[in-house]
Amino acid sequence: MESTWFTKFRSYLWPIVLYKTQGNLNHDLELTLYRGNLLLDADRVNYSFGTLHKVMRGAIQQIQMSGGDFSRVLILGYGGGSAAKIIHEEFNANAQIVGVDADEKVIDLASKYFYVNGVELVHDDAFEFVNQVRQTGDTYSLLIVDLFINEHSPNYHVTQLDAFRSILAEHGKMIINTMLDSLEFKDLESKLRELKISYTTWDKVEGNRVILI
C-alpha cells in the first residue's frame, strides 16, 4: 500500500480510505489517511492514531502525574499501537510492553503499517490472557484496558475487574477506556466501589469516558 504526495495533500482536505478489510471479529477495518497521518479505523470509530491517540495521550499523562511507573506495561486491545508509541516516545523509551489483541487481522495490520517497535504482540482473548498471567504470578506496573469492537466496550463483570487489579504490581496503575453512556458508566463505577478500588475519571475527549485507577 502506497500513497502519493497528491493523496497526502488531499488528505488535508478530507479523510481518504486507502485500504479496507474484514476483521476477524466481524467488523470492517480501514487504513485511512487524514492530514498526512495513517489511522487505523473500524467502520464507526478510530482504533489508533486519531481520536484514540488523543485519549491515550491524555490518560497516560494523568497516570504520569500521579507517579505512574512505565517499566512493565500490558495493553489489552492493542489496535495499531497508539498507547505503546506514546509511552516509548514520550515517557519511557525502555518500557517493556506486551500488547494483546483478539483480532489477528488487527495484529497483522499493526505489524505492517503501525507501531510494534520493542513490543511483544500476543494474539489472544484479553480475559484469557489475564487469567494466564494470574496463574504465573506475573505483574505489570501499568495495565491499559482498551477493549472495543467498533464503539462497543464490554460490560465488565466484578470478577473481571478484580482480575485486572490482581495483576498490577504494588502501586501499579490502570487505565480503562470506554465509550459507555451515562448509566452504563455509573454501573461500572458502582462495581469499582464494590471492590473498594480507588479511581478518578477523565473525559476531556468527547465520546470517551476513561477510568484511572
Task: Describe what you observe in this structure.
The relative contact order is 0.14. This protein has a 7-stranded mixed beta sheet. The chain is α/β, with parallel strands linked by helices and 213 residues long. Helices cover 35% and strands 30% of the residues. It is globular, with a radius of gyration of 17 Å. Strand 8 (140-145), helix 6 (158-166) and strand 9 (168-178) form a beta-alpha-beta unit. The chain folds into 2 domains: 5-48, no CATH class; 52-212, Rossmann fold (3-Layer(aba) Sandwich). Helix 2 (51-65) packs across helix 3 and helix 5 (126-136) packs across helix 6 (158-166). It starts with a helix and ends with a strand. It has helices spanning 5-10, 51-65, 82-91, 104-113, 126-136, 158-166, 182-194; strands at 16-22, 28-34, 37-42, 46-48, 72-76, 96-101, 119-123, 140-145, 168-178, 200-202, 209-212.
Give the SSE map.
Blueprint: H1 5-10, E1 16-22, E2 28-34, E3 37-42, E4 46-48, H2 51-65, E5 72-76, H3 82-91, E6 96-101, H4 104-113, E7 119-123, H5 126-136, E8 140-145, H6 158-166, E9 168-178, H7 182-194, E10 200-202, E11 209-212
Parallel strand pairs: 5-6, 5-8, 6-7, 8-9
Antiparallel strand pairs: 1-2, 2-3, 3-4, 9-11, 10-11
Helix pairs in contact: 2-3, 5-6
